[in-house]
Task: structure prediction
Amino acid sequence: MRYVIFFISAVFLFTACQKTETAPASAEAKRYPLKGKVVSVDKAKKKAKIDHEEIPVFMEVMTMDFPIREDWVWNDLTPGAEVHAELVVDSTADEPYWLEKIGIVALPQPGQPAVPVNEKFAQIGKEVPAFSLTNQDGKKFTLKDYRGKAVAITFIYRECPLPEFCIKMSRHFSDMANQIASDPEGKKKIRLLSISFDPERDTPEKLKQYGLGYLGKDSNDDFTVWQLAVGPDKDVRAVADFFGLRYETDENDKTQINHSLITAVISPEGKVTRIFTGGNWTPEQVLSELQAQAVAAK
Result:
């Protein structure tokens, strides 16, 4: 273990003076899940100092600088933010380790000035525009079609491989859908919507099969409570921008998408009531908010 830590530290010191290389990882590269908290960031050098948890069988708890190749993170990566990422270790590369597949859960910082309101993004109490999408059955609809129902919206893509990202969101939504469907009142008043930000590959037909896989064999193709939807890239981008979701194709692997996590609750009047950032919320928290909104609308 100490040898591994020494090796990584020595490699970092060596590469500090080298030109950043953005070539994809080789076949010999090793990958490890990493979770930690940002201590400081150096946007110019594209590095972040992270106090990370133990990486089983590889590295004990420590604080060190990590190169990050994904440009989108630098607007959101701040000291105090919790990050989930994949540590890539490639001894054949000029830059032998870096982070990929960054997920950010921004945490409040004591004394930090309030962030100016960007009216393009969702705000609590703000009405959701009538974005147009296509559901898993190939039917077009707008978010205004949910008026009169309390709605939770999240974002996923079908081929996401990370258990703490889209897989977790879909598992939570399918669990909530099955619970809501068993309650006659809930089934009338609450809806769930997962929007794919991968329109090139996530066709309505594929999303339907994806959803059925999560709902289970007893679902009987019933998407009354939970729908999955997609649309042209410009329309999906507009929805994502409103809710503050950030995503981009991984330059080293075009089949993967680097993204943040956003789940929002919408009132029956079509207004944003709660925004859950990251993936650390529970189905009970979201259901509680949905039920409160449904009751308030009586």
User: Anything to note?
Assistant: Residues 166-181 form the longest helix (16 residues). The first strand starts at residue 30 and ends at 42. The radius of gyration is 21 Å. DSSP finds six helices and 14 strands in the chain.
